[in-house]
Design brief:
10% of the residues lie in helices and 28% in strands. It is built from one helix and six strands; from the N terminus they run ββαββββ. The longest helix has 11 residues. The radius of gyration is 15 Å and the shape is globular.
Length: 113
């Protein structure tokens, strides 16, 4: 994992205990705000509890609050059932579906899945 050595927002410089994850490696189809999100995401590590809040924070707030994600157990075998995101909790649903082994499905408040 390549955590940034810059202090996280709201922390005092020199506080060596808080690190901010770098921006996610994410590419979405053009005009994703007018239809289903489709794209690619390359997480930096296998810790969904670290990667997911950064991913969620990079998405357009117009899609609504992300309440649940579905991930494949093959890709995320140690995924927690809940992940804290700024201001809310995201439920994590695990699937054994081979078709969704390397996919992440995001459920949003206003646009659905």
């Amino acid at each position: 994992m390549n955590a940034s050595t810059e202090p996280a927002e709201g922390t005092a410089p020199g506080d060596g205990h808080c690190y901010r994850m770098p921006s996610p490696r994410l590419r979405l189809t053009p005009d994703a705000s007018h239809g289903p999100l489709d794209g690619a995401w390359w997480p930096r590590c296998g810790a969904l509890e670290l990667e997911l809040p950064v991913l969620v924070g990079s998405l357009d707030p117009g899609i609504g609050t992300i309440t649940r994600v579905t991930v494949g157990t093959a890709a995320w075998p140690d995924a927690p059932r809940e992940v804290m995101a700024p201001g809310h909790v995201i439920e994590v649903v695990l699937t054994d579906s081979a078709a969704e082994a390397h996919a992440i499905t995001v459920d949003c408040g206003t646009v659905g899945r």
